[in-house]
Amino acid sequence: SYDDESCGKRQRLLVVANRLPVSAKRTGENSWSLEMSPGGLVSGLLGVATEFETKWVGWPGVDVYDVVEEKALSESLAEIKCIPVFFGEVFDQYYNGYCNGILWPILHHLGLPQEDHNDTNKTFQTQYDAYKKANRKFRDVIIENYEEGDLVWIHDYHLMFLPQYLKEYNKNIKVGWFLHSPFPSSEVFKTLPSRSELLRSLLTADLLGFHTYDFASHFVSTCTRILGVEGTPEGIVDHGKVTRVAVFPIGIDPNRFIKACELPEVRQQMTELKERFAGKKVILGVDRLDMIKGIPQKFLGFEKFLEENMDWRDKVVLVQIAVPTRNSVPEYRKVKDQVHGLVGRINGRFGSVSSLPIHHLDCSVDFNFLCALYAIADVMLVTSLRDGMNLVSYEFIACQEAKKGVLVLSEFAGAAQSLGAGAILVNPWDVTEVSSAIKEALNMPAEEREKRHRVNFQYVKTHSAKKWGNDFMSELHDTFSESDMKIKK
Ligand code: ADQ
């Protein structure tokens, strides 16, 4: 228990992420509707929220510039324990610029952007400054709301300067930071001009968490190579200060998906989908439309499969749901065009008036329909070029208790380390391998599918988002007690 027995109060926790778990939408003058955005992060933290007196700090999805409006929105958010951070004019350079244009590609081994050679230094500097400014805005809001003894759990690459800023304000604030994306090899991270400052800031935290052992060890070797600090089994040691580095694989709330598959509405949708695709096997893809998800590679693998397996041509369909994101970043617009081009080519080559091999939708689908799709799919195809974890794989498995379909999973997704035993692992860059994996999955005997599904279903059930949140918090809490003792000594 995290209760403070001396005064009978629950331990306070500030969960800090770029986005709040709710999105605000204007409904009238000074009135707002607040919509919860579900997902692994949110469900994991809701589990933690019951153990701690939790407050959330982050951007509510809108910026307001009027004091009265800001007050009204802050008051509505306060009722659900959310504290807003408004970015104002730095948003574009911070979010689209440094976070998603520079850090995101580096963290996923895609390198720094190549364009605008004449302007790169200026752009980089402006975006870097905006990133620091945005991190300082978070610091200010946290300081305003901090009470002595609070734990602070920071999420993701948007807030890499926040540990340092908080520790500069008060070195006794206990700070944990978790990275949802992969951490790259040191050779890639080294190319980032601001590499040392970012690493130094992270090392001021008490606990740093990663999804997999590989990402954690990349981080440790990056720090030892760039900063010359020492890597030990406990973490990183620098001038006697220990920063704990540990592995916490995230999961989902499996029961939410299992229960949804039993709802009459979802069952009805499943029946309709089965009728729609009668006589065909369904391969499913569900991704944000992002370079890292390897959607073009998925289509190339499927094209190769259709080329080489004439007998399957009118017996299989690939349904790809690709929700567009980060449209203001040029690279994202490029990948969207590339994906559309491939859909046109493959449907043109292998389609007929009555049937198309690829059904591609640029949209988000609602939760119940998503569960119905997961439940009726024969094969789930995940071809991320790199991915922190990939929760879509977990969601598919949770919905497959009846069907026991096959997961084809990129070896470059964090999930390959946890679901590798039951999935067919592929290198998404190797079209021949993807094509063979599709064939193997479609032809897999029921007994083998059942065996593989059992292993993965058991894993998804036991390694939930709730467990992830509790494991991280318990470690942060213990780190807290230890350093507390050091101070007392
Ligand atoms: P994401 O890159 O967003 O997350 P992922 O883990 O697969 O990737 O989660 C995506 C979520 O969005 C899933 O819950 C999925 O259901 C939903 N989703 C995706 N496309 C959708 C669509 N078209 N319609 C409706 N819902 C859709 C980042 C990292 C991941 C890491 C998570 C959590 O990039 O590697 O697993 O954070 O740490």
TrEMBL record:
In Swiss-Prot or TrEMBL terms, this protein is called alpha,alpha-trehalose-phosphate synthase (UDP-forming)
Q: Which GO terms describe its biological process?
A: trehalose biosynthetic process
GO MF? alpha,alpha-trehalose-phosphate synthase (UDP-forming) activity; trehalose-phosphatase activity
Range of the intact protein held here: 3 to 491 of 842
The family classification in the record reads: In the N-terminal section; belongs to the glycosyltransferase 20 family. In the C-terminal section; belongs to the trehalose phosphatase family.
E.C. no: 2.4.1.15
Q: Which GO terms describe its cellular component?
A: cytosol
Which organism was this protein described from? Answer: Brassica carinata (Ethiopian mustard)
Q: Which UniProt keywords are listed?
A: Glycosyltransferase, Transferase
Give the first-level EC class, as a single word. transferase
